Structures are given as C-alpha cells and as structure tokens.
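[Target chain]
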Amino acid sequence: MAAPLSSKTFKFELVAPERMLASEDVVMVTLPGDEGEFGVLDGHAPVVSSLRPGVIAVQMPSGEMKNIFVSGGVADVTGALCTVLAEEAVNVNDIDRAAVEKRLEELRSELAGTIDDVAKADFARDIAIAEAKRAAA
C-alpha cells in the first residue's frame, strides 16, 4: 500500500450510462487522456479531456489504489471535483482475460470478413478497446 501523496482530498465521481459507479473523496486520480495520461490532485486547474481506453488509477486517503478500466469517455476537472463520464467502466480485478481474448478473436474474424469502411472503423475501435482491456487485466 503506497503512502498518500497529500492529505488533501477532492471528490471523484465515475458515471457510466447505467449508473453512478463511484462518488468518493480521493487523494489523486490518474486518467488516460487522449493526449496522454495526466494526474489530478486537489486544486487542479479546470480542464475537460476526452479519454482513450485505459485504466483510471485512484489513490484513496488510506493509500489504497483502485484501478478501473474505461473504454473511453470524458473527464471534467475543477479544483474540487473530477467527474468521469465513461462509456463503459469495470474494476480491473473483475476483467475476465479469457473472455477478452475470445472477444478479440471474434472481432478480428468479423473485421477480416467485412468490406464496409464504416463497419471496419467500428471493428477497429472495438478491437482497440479489447486490446486495452486485455493489457489492463
């Protein structure tokens, strides 16, 4: 368990389409921004960023780390609040690596058999998400 970086906390909220997954006081959040990972601490400058598929690392006041995979979304950061609107979110410990591997095989097979450019782009995005999920597992 890592020691907290600071004793100051701020509110972190994680919202997926079906429900709010987290609303808690945290010390630090590391987000997978489209232009690279970035950390958020209490008092962070306001920013809105799109998120790529990857892991959100959340440091709790106790020093405990929580790792949550997101398939993408948007982060809205103010000085006292970090809100993530995620397309999909799952605790990294709950990822079934075998199921992800199977899904990757299916997607690659479907991509190989498609000629429509829009469908190809959709399959490529789904493959990128599955590969990021596999890497997180």
Observations:
- The CA atoms of residues 29 and 137 lie 19 Å apart.
- The chain has two domains: 10-92, 95-136.
